[in-house]
Design brief:
Blueprint (H helix, E strand, L loop, with lengths): L2 H13 L2 H7 L4 H15 L4 E3 L3 E4 L1 H27 L5 E7 L7 H11 L3 E7 L2 H9 L5 E5 L8 E5 L4 E6 L13 H4 L3 E5 L4 H11 L6 E6 L2 H9 L4 E5 L9 E9 L4 E6 L6 H14 L4
Parallel strand pairs: 3-4, 3-5, 8-9, 8-10
Antiparallel strand pairs: 1-2, 5-12, 6-12, 7-10, 7-11
Helix pairs in contact: 1-2, 1-4, 2-3
């Protein structure tokens, strides 16, 4: 067994596709398949369910996969620990982020990149449940998500700024000149909304329901980019966090008494394995954010 076989196994889990996993690992698909079969033979277990395509992991495969993630995290942690002893931060910081968060993760990335030029970053846009699950499974180092679902026995969080809301619109299609809007005014507008079940959408639905109102959902999507495109084309308006960067002719009007159901936070898992890189970045982020709170 070698570390590459474990990387192949984790890549297959992340891509759910033999060809894509091979491309990510910079090997041919036959090489990846051969090395995984070799790992199965060495362990005496079937790890992957196969037919003409990847069909998932066996129960034993899921258990081995958890160990593989831990071993790879330990390897990267060892390199990061050695770099920390030299006064450096190196490696890849993996961030899971909820969409339409009031905190712009690129500010944190820019800050860390400026201080640590050798640091690399991977960002994933996911639901709050997926962010916490990814942290628990050691797929991410840090997460930006809502704190109401945080199990403090497994995670540690730094509270970020409260998320307040505004209405994003194109003045050519929706000539709104108010300085402040209420929810009653929004109930008569065609809206683009994130898919049901996402935390920001749940907060929007709660704000409408608590006032006995129902939104006109012209468009529902799990893509923020598609939401912005729909607003740009005049298909609908969209409720966005105040402070969002607005491009071109779009305008963002504050909404009265509009906020999310829970505070946003920067989150790290509290248990091991937890790399030196994750811990160092979390503490540096804490110190950087403190003067801004």
């Amino acid at each position: 067994m070698d570390i590459k076989q474990l990387k192949f196994l984790c890549a297959l889990d992340e891509t759910r596709h033999f060809g894509q996993a091979a491309a990510r690992c910079h090997v041919t698909q036959p090489t990846l398949s051969m090395r995984l079969r070799s790992l199965e033979e060495e362990l005496g277990l079937e790890l992957v369910r196969r037919s003409q395509r990847f069909e998932g992991f066996t129960e034993a495969g899921e258990r081995v996969l958890a160990w593989a993630r831990s071993l790879l995290a330990a390897q990267e942690g060892l390199y990061a620990e050695a770099a920390a002893c030299r006064g450096q931060l190196v490696g890849t910081l993996r961030l899971g982020v909820v969409p339409l968060a009031s905190f712009d993760p690129m500010r944190l990335v820019q800050h860390m990149a400026g201080r640590h030029p050798e640091l690399r970053f991977q960002l994933y846009s996911l639901s709050s449940e997926q962010v916490l699950e990814g942290l628990a499974r050691n797929q991410f180092d840090l997460g930006v998500s809502y704190l109401d679902r945080l199990d403090r026995s497994h995670f540690e969080g730094i509270e970020l700024a409260e998320t307040r809301m505004g209405l994003l619109h194109h003045p050519s299609h929706f000539p709104l000149d108010a300085a402040l809007l209420n929810w009653e005014a929004l109930a008569g507008l065609p809206l683009g909304l994130l898919s049901a079940g996402m935390h920001f959408r749940q907060s929007i639905d709660h704000n409408f329901r608590s006032r006995g109102l129902s939104p006109i959902a012209r468009l529902e999507t799990d893509s923020v980019q598609q939401l912005l495109q729909a607003v740009q084309r005049g298909l609908c308006c969209a409720i966005m966090p105040l402070g969002s960067e607005v491009d071109g002719e779009l305008r963002l009007i504050p909404i009265e008494d509009a906020h999310t159901l829970a505070a946003l936070g920067l989150i790290i898992r509290s248990g091991q394995p937890r790399s030196a890189l994750a811990e160092a970045c979390f503490e540096e982020a804490r110190n950087w954010l403190a003067p801004q709170s």
